[in-house]
Amino acid sequence: MKARLLIFLAVVSLLLLVTPAVSQVVETKWTADIPFDFMVAETHLPAGHYTIKSNPHTMRLTVINTESKEKASVFTRDVEKLTANEHTVLVFQRHGDSHILHQVWGEAEAHGHDVVHGAEVIELQQVK
User: pTM of this prediction?
Assistant: First the structure.
């Protein structure tokens, strides 16, 4: 009985030490000037200056208009390439009259954030 209690206390102590360290992972932030209206998921956002935040724990990307404070959030998948970008790059797909955010590639990073869309949005097609 005492051995089980000691093991339990050891596990709880370890969790108390590890949890704060894991929660210290900081959101990544980028800024971008977007010269046209666009869609993020179901949300229509106007042209303007934006802050884009990525949360590595939830795989969630939040796009915030710095002037109007309008924002939208979407889930993303990680995508990778061999070389890092020199600048932050946002990839949009035109769908009818709308521009739809598809990917965000951060400055000096070789991994990007691919927006998870519903069935109503045509995904980017890779040319072979």
Answer: 0.71
